[in-house]
Design brief:
This protein is an alpha/beta fold and 681 residues long. Among the domains are: 13-32 and 406-496, Up-down Bundle (Methane Monooxygenase Hydroxylase, Chain G, domain 1), CATH 1.20.58.930; 138-384, Alpha-Beta Barrel (TIM Barrel); 627-673, no CATH class. Helix 5 packs parallel to helix 6, helix 9 (223-236) runs parallel beside helix 10 and helix 15 (437-456) runs antiparallel to helix 16.
Length: 681
């Protein structure tokens, strides 16, 4: 934007970059850190000419959170490696995007990679089987998938299909999910676990599954449910499978700590558990009590918490056996964590263990606890949903525009008659000194605020304010560029980089596609999908299309797994698309999204990598049309069109528009109802 008088020459700010005497003195006294590997605006201190793919991997942490699936290829594109019947095959994400364009699927797209779902199911079951075999554990393992984590039909079908040989079951927390579970469990060896509050219809549905030969467990969440289960099972003459969720005293760390401990929302207290045992004994149904269930949280980051919780649960299990319940199944719930940050730590978005360690620790802890009391080893049940499906989905979107906070070039001298506020800011810019940056910053803030007060009072013109605001931007940008030279950055200046970061506008909705990023500040890996052979030079945050101050991504995983407030991105090239990807979004995100600003579901593509490395587009699901989302909020699109047609006809009668214009308007309105809710090319 041009905000300076047209009669003033405008050399670059760099013209005043020579070191002042104070700066030279600071250098002599070793008060600054040398920038040995490149200019200070480089995100990793590396000059553009020496930028490498390995440095891109380090910057975005892909080797940490990407595990064995995601990486950057030699062309600088993100690629994924998928297991196939002919071994592992690597596919570029840009090849996938080309395939989407050929099929007229526009951004944003939620990409599901079928091979990764199947691989996670295989890994989970194989790792537990290996741990059981190596430890000589005398029980079995059964995984169940919590449908609430991703209820999409294609996802549930993929898990059912790939889990058939393992007896991989389903967990249902509602009547709708139970209906899905009944028709999706691959065999009678699979378990159906019913959690959550259950009414009579819920229980009747589960009893019918039992009549069909499935092991459908009713997990008690409240004392009242047990009486209903007993009554309905006697009505149908069906012996139910009963479990109980117990509240453990063990607390976990991190964001999901509220799911554990005495104040957890679901489950029975110790007293209620004993009451349930006595009730079943009185009803002659204690033989139905076969499962103990607990849940510490869906993302347990510390393996020590897992061990501690399991030890306590084992004591409950042993106590129930000693009290006459047959038992046989110990359900650990969820908790197997995803390392979103790639940090291998106990931070909320990471974990300090891998799958094999988790499985071995679970098997060893249960075996040691049971052997000490001579109790038979139970079948281990886990509800690992987040870990199973998170890697399979990638949200891809294009960048539509960029706002930056770079100043316009600054004049060598001010126009004659410039106001005092502008003169003070100009003087501050000329006198910036390395050993006085905090003072310089304070002066800039003071003079800028004075300038704004003068403008509000009508004492200066709009053009004078614009000139002063540009001088302020020049000052703070120059201060920010000098901060890396300091040994200790003043606290007030630590956030300066964030306040000056670019805003990249992405073609997506945070509320629809990444609700956890907004609701619980979940950190997902985000990075460009291409141009990674180039050094990214812009510190940025990402805004969505919703026109909401919360519709943004401003928390990212840094190179060492720490959470950082800006993401390094590339300059946008004119007439060239720029694509970003958000990874590990397969758990919860697709079904938690809402209709904020009436943005509907984005396009979805499910792909499979064939044995020859080719991409097979298995399923394409077009995103919601405008008519779809309007109907979700109780509008009737045909009625809206009829109302608009009537409004246009009234305008024709009043000679405000022509008949031809009316037809054009109606066509546009009708076509818009069938259009995509997101930005269309």
């Amino acid at each position: 934007m041009s905000i300076l008088p047209t009669n003033v020459s405008r050399p670059s700010i760099a013209a005043s970059d020579a070191s002042s005497p104070a700066e030279e003195k600071a250098l002599e006294e070793n008060q600054q850190l040398p920038c040995e590997s490149g200019p200070v605006d480089s995100p990793s201190g590396v000059a553009a000419s020496s930028w490498t793919i390995e440095q891109a991997r380090e910057l975005y942490g892909v080797r940490g959170w990407g595990e064995q699936y995601f990486d950057i290829n030699d062309e600088g594109n993100v690629a994924f490696t998928a297991p196939t019947e002919s071994g592992f095959k690597t596919v570029s994400m840009m090849d996938v995007i080309d395939g989407l364009h050929q099929r007229d699927l526009q951004m944003p797209v939620m990409l599901r990679i079928e091979n990764l779902i199947e691989d996670r199911v295989r890994q989970l079951n194989s790792s537990f089987r290996s741990a059981i075999y190596n430890a000589r554990y005398r029980g079995d393992f059964r995984a169940v998938f919590p449908i609430k984590v991703n209820q999409q039909h294609h996802v549930v079908d993929s898990i059912s299909r790939s889990g058939r040989s393992y007896g991989h079951g389903m967990e249902a927390g509602s009547k709708a999910e139970l209906l899905v579970a009944i028709v999706s469990v691959p065999s009678a060896e699979s378990l159906i676990v019913c959690n959550g509050y259950k009414d009579e219809e819920f229980i009747d549905l589960g009893l019918q599954a039992c009549r069909l030969g499935y092991k459908c467990f009713f997990v008690l969440e409240t004392q009242q449910e047990l009486e209903l289960i007993i009554r309905r099972s006697k009505h149908f003459g069906v012996k139910p499978y009963i479990g109980a969720r117990v509240k453990l005293a063990t607390k976990v760390e991190g964001h999901w700590a509220g799911d554990s401990g005495d104040r957890s929302l679901f489950g029975l207290t110790t007293v209620e558990l004993i009451t349930a045992v006595d009730t079943l004994k009185s009803a002659g149904m204690i033989d139905c009590f076969q499962m103990l269930h607990y849940h510490l949280g869906s993302q347990v980051t510390n393996i020590l918490n897992i061990r501690d919780g399991l030890k306590e649960a084992c004591r409950f299990y042993i106590g129930l056996v000693e009290d006459g319940a047959p038992m046989g199944y110990l359900d650990l719930g969820g908790g197997l964590a995803v390392d979103y940050a790639g940090a291998a730590s106990t931070e909320s978005h990471s974990r300090n263990y891998d799958l094999d360690e988790y499985c071995f620790d679970v098997v060893e802890t249960i075996m040691n606890s049971m052997d000490a009391k001579n109790v038979a080893h139970p079948t281990i049940v886990t509800e690992s949903g987040r870990w199973t499906v998170a890697p399979m989905s990638v949200l891809m979107f294009n960048v539509l525009a960029v706002t930056n906070f770079d100043p316009e070039p600054v004049p060598e001298s001010l126009p004659v008659g410039s106001c005092e506020g502008v003169a003070n800011l100009f003087s501050t810019l000329e006198k910036l000194q390395l050993d006085r940056l905090q003072e310089n910053y304070n002066d800039a803030i003071y003079y800028r605020d004075q300038l704004r007060d003068s403008f509000r009072a009508g004492a200066i013109t709009l053009r004078e304010r614009a000139l002063g605001e540009n001088l302020y931007l020049a000052i703070v940008n120059r201060i920010n560029s000098m901060l890396p030279q300091l040994r200790r950055v003043p606290a007030e200046l630590e956030s300066l980089s964030l306040s000056l970061s670019d805003i990249y506008y992405g073609n997506f909705s945070v509320f629809q596609s990444l609700p956890d990023a907004w609701a619980i500040e979940q950190v997902f890996p985000v990075m460009p999908l291409h141009r990674l052979e180039e050094k990214p030079t812009r510190k940025s945050i990402i805004a969505d299309l919703t026109c909401d101050c919360d519709g943004k991504l401003d928390r990212f995983s840094g190179p060492d797994g720490e959470v950082v407030r800006t993401l390094d991105l590339h300059l946008i090239r004119k007439d060239e698309p720029y694509y970003l990807g958000v990874f590990l979004v397969g758990a919860y995100q697709e079904t938690l999204g809402d209709l904020h600003n009436l943005f509907g579901d984005n396009n979805v593509a499910s792909i499979r990598v064939a044995g020859d490395g080719s991409i097979v587009f298995v399923e394409e699901v077009p995103g919601d049309t405008i008519a779809d989302v309007l109907s979700y909020v109780e509008y009737e699109p045909p009625a809206l069109l009829a109302r608009f047609r009537s409004m246009a006809e009234d305008a024709v009668r009043q000679k405000t528009i022509t008949v031809e214009a009316r037809q054009q308007m109606v066509r546009l309105f009708r076509n818009s109802l069938q259009g995509f809710t997101y930005f269309e090319e």
